[in-house]
Write a structure and sequence with these properties.
The chain contains no helices and eleven strands. It has about 120 residues and is mainly β. The strands form three sheets. Strands 2-3-4-9 form a four-stranded antiparallel β-sheet, with no helix packed on it. It has a four-stranded antiparallel β-sheet with strand order 5-6-7-8, with no helix packed on it. A hairpin with a 3-residue loop joins strand 3 and strand 4. The structure holds FE2/S2 (inorganic) cluster (FES).
């Protein structure tokens, strides 16, 4: 059965990503970068930098919740996903929710076999 685009999938427990930290998780062959914003809840993004496809997990998340890619030092607000330096770019956000201390994400669909 093909996963529906609106279907949330369990990723991890809330305690797996402490406030002010980030980590990458894989569910059914797809990866997601989770950022636990201090006092602001969970954010989910594609784990790949929108500049030149480097892994964002190799970057740095500072106390202002600014995520800096390790490759060319582009900076993003890990809260909003918007570019800080440069502006006008953004991380690819995925829908995320927390229920009963469990984190769920909607992954982007990949070439659905609609005629199968
Ligand atoms: S690949 Fe991330 S800043 Fe260039």
């Amino acid at each position: 059965m093909v996963t529906d685009a609106s279907e949330y999938q369990k990723v991890c427990d809330l305690d797996d990503v402490w406030e002010g930290e980030m980590d990458v998780f894989e569910v059914a062959g797809q990866e997601v970068l989770l950022v636990h914003v201090e006092g602001g809840g969970m954010r989910a993004y594609s784990p790949i930098c929108p500049h030149q496809d480097f892994p964002l997990i190799d970057g740095d998340l500072d106390e202002r919740c600014i995520l800096t890619c390790s490759a060319h030092l582009w900076q993003f607000s890990a809260d909003s996903g918007e570019g800080v330096n440069p502006e006008g770019v953004s991380l690819n956000a995925y829908p995320v929710k927390v229920e009963n201390d469990t984190v769920f994400v909607v992954f982007p669909t990949v070439d659905k076999a609609v005629n199968a």
